[in-house]
Amino acid sequence: MNESTQITLSAFLEAMVPWETAFCAPVLRYAGIRSGTGLRILKGNLDLGPVPLNTILEPIQAGQLEVGHIQFPEYTGRIRDLVNGIASGGILNSSNGPVQVGEDRCSEPQLLLRRFFENEFRQNSKVLSLEIGFQQARTFRDTTSIDSAVRAGIRPYENLKDLLGEYGIAWDLDSQVAFEVIIHRPLELMSSSRVEDGIAILQMLVHHTLPVDKIRLGYKVFGAGLIRRESISGSSMEWVRERLANGAEVNKGSVNITVAPGSHLHCFGSYGGVCLHQMLFGDPTTFPNWRRAVYDGVDPSAKIMDEILITPFAPGGQSRELETAVASLLWMLGFSCLNLAGQRFSDGPDVLALTPQGRLLVVECTTGLPDEKDKLAKLTRRTELIRESIVKSGFNPPEVLSVVVSGLPIAEARGHLLKAKDLGVAVLTKESILDGRGRIFVARDPDEIFSEIKGTLQINKN
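Request: output the structure for the sequence above.
Response:
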């Protein structure tokens, strides 16, 4: 490893120090070639964070290629050794036998450290990532034989991309990035935070190993015609230990702040001087957003919407409810929406959302993977038909954007993002849905939101 590569690796290892104790047993998602008892990984990613992967999928053969998940419980507490081994090309021992990253270890690996900063509508929880690239051989430039093999399998897939998507692996044949080590944030502001009777009840979840004195909760209060900016240290909050449904051990912090009745707050959760999460909260009985106030007359405190959006989805179920919730959410964010519900409209998009400037979102909703049942290709065809109809009627060519809204978290949908980007389809996962839910308290500019959604086509590449 040359000096430049070593400096990048050292910088990554140093940058992950603040969150290192929050990592659960790491899981490697991979596509590679098995030789004897050993496995050489061509593409993959290692997710490091406080939440364990919900489902560990068994390896599957696709011609010469093997795709699967590997757990490394023996590296819990020794993440540095694991990252060092991956980056340096060392042989790693696992329950699946010896593992090595990179097809051509004769070339020097190229390392790139990426830092992600918390912005509204950024739909993933990445804090840091380390990209590891090699001069890959062209073993799988032509995937025709693999595509044929996966179609003939006991569990058939449409092609290699379809298989990789289910396992959460993004494979760009033109990229030299073989592997990505991803660090996810260990702090979340809770959507249950709210304002009641002039009291702001603010809550957050933090991994139980992190010292609370390094946490800071900042907030900007909108109320009584005034703006107030303050923050509170984690050591001044009340904390209780909880175990989440996924098994993660967390500390739940809360603080009550006196505010003017009807106030709304923009909150920022930070750890060690780095903002990791931000959300908007408010009084569910009063709204600066006229559309939100109207909606509350139908669904008080948005309880039905929250049941639909926050409750984990069962793939294939609740899709009609998700369509209605997404249309309602976009309407409250300022769009003019048409919800094409009903069996007779099943061949069309689920929602059409128009901005004041005439920019159009063509939205398909799914509780499963973004490209399930070839949704991406079908959506692009539907979008093109709508664009042609508008132009045929004598209007100027509009800016039309295809969007798939998935009820799954980005960690499970990541493998489908590359294909979506290639087709020009923006993918919004559960993180973005909840972000949008947190933004309906105040009136929004839908054209600005349109631009943000369009910008996720670039973000999803990462």
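The chain has three domains: 3-184, 187-282, 290-459.
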